């Protein structure tokens, strides 16, 4: 496309402006986490590592971080297992209600979080009477894991089924044709083909769970706090604002390589296309 | 039928199909894909399964490979019944239409795959895969991924990946279908060469009659799940036994019973190749059949021309019968569109064929020029 000099400069300017709009707030938070002042004043008065040291010493933020990580890891593992199994079943078999089931599987991610939250809160708090015995799920680590897994399954499922659809169905036949038994075919063909999709799906699921706050607020119960909840609760306490900045920056630093990896993995690198 | 004069290699059959039948779908809505197929394919033969799409040829191939279980009948490999064996327990390998190369493995690893899963030692399989790649002229591309290769190169990798296992029979499912014409012709020659070198039985599925004629020792022509004819390319071309074969393999004039009766005094459908017809400028030779008619179309093809002619009745009026004649372009003196023309052919050039429902056959191949005569059914 041919653009005039002026047009090129305008577009270039607009691009940088857009990027600045997206990233300036992140940079501000990162810089403020080293600010000597407690207030959110700009420019920073001086630089210090005190807040970073303190963040790990006090109980609140580090506990919340560990809680968030645990929930995210367990929810991701469950999601990967269920999502992968569902994807394989949907890809391999045709059965009555297949497309409806496929829709039901991805619906949770499209539903407003608040709807899911209310629904789950309701179910978890209720005592369910099955005649022979009754039970109540209640709140805590386990209820959070269940709640997060509901929408994490979707990303795992979507990633794996997309990879399976792009792969030639003949690959499994080719493997058997060349003498491989079912277990060999899984180890040498099927798994390597979906491996990167699994990893990408896993990272996305983890990220989804890690920063979730709406469903979390409704399903965590009182005794359990995740990092997003802690941040939300402390952003209004002037004394703790620097700690909030530290946690936000920390999460950002951890997320960047993960996001980069997830993107690399889901991009076509020739794998899975079959042609 | 069945006698191969070209190979001379038919010591014992490599593949035997006995009463093979395959039905898809539910009991209420069944589709018979393959019906009552009997076939013997000799060791070292280049055998083609030819037919239009949906004629059952690929299903037969998939049953030999073990991807489909026959509904009835048996498959024997070198005399051993393999009907119920899994694909990985059969000594056959397949070259798939879309090649089905493993995208996450390099070319070399693709070729090694069969040896690897059978537990061949690393150094040994490296060497054999290397040699195989050498023989398909891809030795220097071994470290590439399939996605980095051209269509022709992928095709050769697929061939190498199958042949490195030294199967008893190599199955090829339209392996040249995805390639352009020029490359196709090149690979046809190459494939034939490879087959002669390795001496492995090739079972080659194609819908391209030219490909089947030029490469095969023998051909089985499929239509509606059944074999219409088995024979050498020459047999099939010169002596088509049914009107379907006559029309599908090459181009044929199918002269209906009424016209045949008028011309030869025989009440049966005859097949006549357009290139056996000549233009008559002066005298009709002995033993020739001669007709006159009106030229309705002249198609210039370079060395040859294709004439469409509507035949005259004995009394000079125009009959509905049409005929296609392929004649040398430089012999086309005095022939004009809409003008009269006289055609003749040696009497033995027209063959009786059994009619296999030409009304349904007509739809099977859009490329085919069909002249079954003008009499309404």
What does this structure look like?
The complex is a heterodimer of chains A (275) and B (377). In chain A, helix 3 (59-92) runs antiparallel to helix 8 and helix 7 runs antiparallel to helix 8. Chain A has 275 residues and is mainly α. In chain A, strands 1-2 form a two-stranded antiparallel sheet. Chain A has helices at residues 5-32, 50-57, 59-92, 98-110, 113-125, 141-166, 170-177, 182-210, 214-219, 227-234, 241-266; strands spanning 127-129, 134-136. Chain A has a single domain (41-266), classed as MetI-like (MetI-like fold). Chain A is globular and about 70 Å long. Chain B folds into 2 domains: 13-245, P-loop containing nucleotide triphosphate hydrolases (Rossmann fold); 252-371, RNA polymerase II/Efflux pump adaptor protein, barrel-sandwich hybrid domain (OB fold (Dihydrolipoamide Acetyltransferase, E2P)), CATH 2.40.50. The model of chain B is unreliable at 1-10 and 358-377 (pLDDT under 50). In chain B, the strands form 4 sheets. A 6-stranded mixed beta sheet of chain B has the order 6-7-8-3-9-10, with helices on both faces. Chain B has 377 residues and is α/β, with parallel strands linked by helices. In chain B, helix 2 (107-117) packs across helix 3. Chains A and B meet through helix 7 and helix 8 of A and strand 6 and helix 2 of B.
Please write out the topology.
The complex is a heterodimer of chains A (275) and B (377).
Chain A: H1 5-32, H2 50-57, H3 59-92, H4 98-110, H5 113-125, E1 127-129, E2 134-136, H6 141-166, H7 170-177, H8 182-210, H9 214-219, H10 227-234, H11 241-266
Antiparallel strand pairs in A: 1-2
Helix pairs in contact in A: 1-11, 2-11, 3-6, 3-8, 3-10, 4-6, 6-8, 7-8, 8-11
Chain B: E1 13-24, E2 31-42, E3 46-50, H1 57-65, E4 72-77, E5 80-81, E6 92-95, H2 107-117, H3 122-135, H4 151-163, E7 169-173, H5 181-198, E8 201-206, H6 209-215, E9 218-223, E10 226-231, H7 233-238, H8 243-248, E11 252-255, H9 257-264, E12 270-272, E13 278-279, E14 288-300, E15 304-312, E16 318-328, E17 340-346, E18 350-352, H10 358-361, E19 370-371
Helix pairs in contact in B: 2-3, 2-4, 3-4
């Amino acid at each position: 496309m041919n653009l005039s000099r002026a047009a090129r400069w305008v577009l270039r300017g607009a691009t940088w402006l857009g990027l600045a709009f997206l990233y300036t707030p992140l940079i501000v938070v990162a810089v403020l986490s080293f600010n000597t002042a407690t207030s959110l004043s700009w420019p920073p008065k001086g630089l210090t590592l005190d807040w970073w040291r303190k963040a790990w010493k006090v109980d609140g933020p580090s506990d919340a971080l560990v809680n968030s990580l645990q929930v995210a890891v367990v929810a991701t593992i469950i999601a990967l297992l269920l999502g992968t199994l569902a994807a394989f079943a949907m890809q391999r078999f045709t059965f009555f209600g297949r497309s409806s089931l496929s829709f039901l599987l991805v619906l949770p991610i499209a539903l407003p979080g608040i709807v899911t939250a209310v629904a789950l809160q309701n179910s978890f708090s209720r005592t369910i009477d099955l005649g022979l015995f009754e039970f109540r799920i209640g709140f805590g680590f386990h209820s959070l894991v269940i709640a997060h897994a509901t929408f994490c399954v979707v990303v795992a499922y979507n990633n794996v089924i997309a990879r399976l659809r792009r792969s030639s169905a003949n690959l499994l036949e080719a493997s058997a044709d060349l003498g491989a038994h079912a277990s060999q075919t899984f180890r040498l063909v099927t798994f390597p083909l979906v491996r990167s999709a699994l990893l990408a799906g896993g990272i996305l699921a983890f990220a989804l769970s890690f920063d979730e706050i709406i469903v979390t607020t409704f399903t965590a119960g009182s005794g359990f706090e995740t990092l997003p909840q802690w941040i939300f609760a402390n952003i209004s306490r002037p004394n703790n604002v620097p700690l909030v900045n530290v946690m936000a920056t920390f999460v950002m630093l951890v997320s960047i390589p993960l996001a980069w990896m997830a993107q690399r993995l889901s991009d076509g690198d020739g794998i899975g296309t079959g042609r | 039928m069945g006698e191969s004069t070209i190979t001379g290699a038919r010591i014992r059959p490599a593949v035997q199909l006995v009463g093979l039948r395959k039905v898809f779908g539910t009991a209420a809505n069944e589709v018979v894909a393959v019906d009552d197929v009997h076939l013997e394919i000799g060791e070292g033969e280049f055998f083609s399964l030819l037919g239009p799409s949906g004629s059952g040829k690929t299903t037969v191939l998939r049953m030999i490979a073990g991807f489909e279980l026959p509904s009835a009948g048996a498959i024997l490999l070198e005399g051993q019944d393999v009907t119920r064996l899994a694909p990985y327990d059969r000594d056959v390998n397949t070259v798939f239409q879309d090649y089905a190369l493993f995208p996450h493995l390099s070319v070399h690893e693709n070729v090694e795959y069969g040896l690897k899963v059978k537990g061949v030692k690393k150094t040994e399989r490296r060497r054999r895969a290397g040699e195989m790649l050498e023989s398909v002229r891809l030795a220097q591309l071994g470290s590439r991924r399939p996605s980095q290769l051209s269509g022709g190169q992928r095709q050769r990798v697929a061939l190498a990946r199958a042949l490195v296992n030294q199967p008893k029979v190599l199955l090829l499912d339209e392996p040249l279908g995805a390639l352009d014409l020029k490359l196709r012709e090149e690979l046809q020659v190459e494939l034939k060469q490879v087959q002669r070198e390795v001496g492995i039985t090739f079972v080659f599925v194609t819908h391209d009659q030219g490909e089947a004629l030029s490469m095969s020792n023998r051909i089985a022509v499929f239509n509606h799940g059944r074999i219409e004819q088995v024979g050498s390319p020459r047999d099939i071309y010169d002596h088509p036994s049914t009107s379907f074969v006559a029309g599908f393999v090459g181009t044929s004039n199918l002269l209906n019973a009424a016209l045949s009766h008028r011309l030869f005094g025989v009440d049966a459908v005859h097949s006549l190749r357009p290139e056996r017809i000549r233009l008559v400028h002066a005298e009709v030779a002995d033993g020739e059949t001669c007709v006159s008619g009106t030229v309705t179309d002249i198609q210039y093809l370079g060395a040859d021309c294709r004439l469409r002619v509507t035949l005259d009745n004995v009394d000079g009026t125009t009959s509905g019968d049409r005929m296609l004649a392929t004649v040398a372009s430089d012999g086309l003196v005095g022939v004009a569109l809409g003008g009269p023309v006289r055609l003749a052919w040696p009497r033995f050039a027209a063959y009786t064929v059994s009619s296999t429902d030409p009304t349904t056959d007509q739809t099977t191949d859009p490329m085919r020029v069909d002249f079954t005569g003008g009499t309404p059914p």
